[in-house]
Amino acid sequence: MNPIEQFQQEVRENIDGLGKDTDLQAMSRVWVREITRHKWSYNFSWLGRPAIQFPNDAWALQELVWACRPDVIVETGIAHGGSLILSASLLAMLDICDATEAGEVLDPSKPKRKVIGIDIDIRDHNRKAIEAHPMSNRIEMIQGSSIDPSVVEQVKAAVGDAKSVLVCLDSNHTHDHVLAELNAYAPMVTPGSYCCVYDTIVEDMPPEMSVDRPWGPGDNPKTAVHAWIKDNPGFEIDKSIDHKLLISVAPDGFLKRVD
Fold first, then answer.
1. What mean pLDDT is reported for the chain?
2. pTM
3. Structural domain of residue 167, as residue ranges?
4. CA atoms of 40 and 29, how far apart (whole Å)
5. pLDDT digits (tens, 9 = 90+) for 74-130
6. Which of 248, 239, 221, 196 is nearest to 36 (CA)?
7. Whole-number Å distance between alpha carbons of 31 and 241
8. Sign (positive or negative) of CA dihedral 227, 230, 232, 237
9. Among the listed residues 234, 149, 129, the one whose alpha carbon sits nearest the alpha carbon of residue 141
10. Are 76 and 118 in contact (CB under 8 A)?
């Protein structure tokens, strides 16, 4: 075994050990519960735009983008646009790497990859800020409900014949809405790529943390994932990501297409 293989094997063993450490897993859930009271995820931005994400989950997305090398990332839920900017910047780096490896001159005005963002209400100030960002030429925004059939058709048309597609679901977190999103967007995911379902952590949090929300324990993205995946054997929950991150809003939410 060469040094690189040896290191990779050590990492796999580390992750396996984390998955078996039930006390540490429980402590991580307690930490998430306590930090959520302080709206911790609101404290971070990506290239100047607020990105309401846990840093660990953003890092996980970076790893998936590098591994899957998507031509298109589809995201439901835009908010301030930080997640769109994150995805667009990761795709820009892929384009740079591809051009470097091929010995080509990269034309930044003609990006090869793009992000499609969908939101039922794209606030005017957020739209203007996203459109003014240097990454904006990689971003296409669609306003409307992510489960509206006409919106889904717009997304399909925008995805076109992309060879590699990754999907991130982060809009309305009720069971029924996420289930409808999975039925609409998971089929767009290409084999070997992922559908990332965020805020599955709601199922593991106390009910009082969902006050004033239409979702909560028993009615949330995780319950939708568990219901959906039973009838979709072409996907599996990648638990290794959960075990590696420990601190995440998406336990059981990283769905890999395996067919």
1. 97
2. 0.96
3. 3-257
4. 14
5. 999 999 999 999 999 999 999 999 999 999 999 988 999 999 999 999 999 999 999
6. 248
7. 18
8. positive
9. 129
10. yes
Confidence label for 187 from pLDDT (cuts 50, 70 and 90): very high
The 10s digit of each residue's pLDDT in 212-246 is 899 999 999 999 999 999 999 999 999 999 999 99
Q: Give the amino acid at 225.
A: V
Secondary structure of the chain in the HEC alphabet?
Answer: CCHHHHHHHHHHHHHHHHHHCHHHHHHHHHHHHHHHCCCHHHHCEECCEECCCCHHHHHHHHHHHHHHCCCEEEEECCCCCHHHHHHHHHHHHHHHHHHHHHCCCCCCCCCCCEEEEEECCCCHHHHHHHHCCCCHHHEEEEECCCCCHHHHHHHHHHHCCCCCEEEEECCCCCHHHHHHHHHHHHHHCCCCCEEEECCHHHHHCCHHHHCCCCCECCECHHHHHHHHHCCCCCEEECHHHHHHHCCCCCCCCEEEECC
> Is residue 214 within 8 Å of 174, Cβ to Cβ?
yes
> In 113-141, which positions are buried (b, 16+ CB within 10 angstroms) versus exposed (e)?
bbbbbbbbebeeebeebbeebebbebbbb
Torsion of CA 62, 66, 70, 71, to 10 degrees: 100
Number of compact structural domains in the chain? 1
Give the integer Cα–Cα distance in Å for 107 and 216: 46
User: Token digits for 235?
Assistant: 């996907």
Residue 112: give its domain's CATH number: 3.40.50.150
Residues counted in the chain: 259
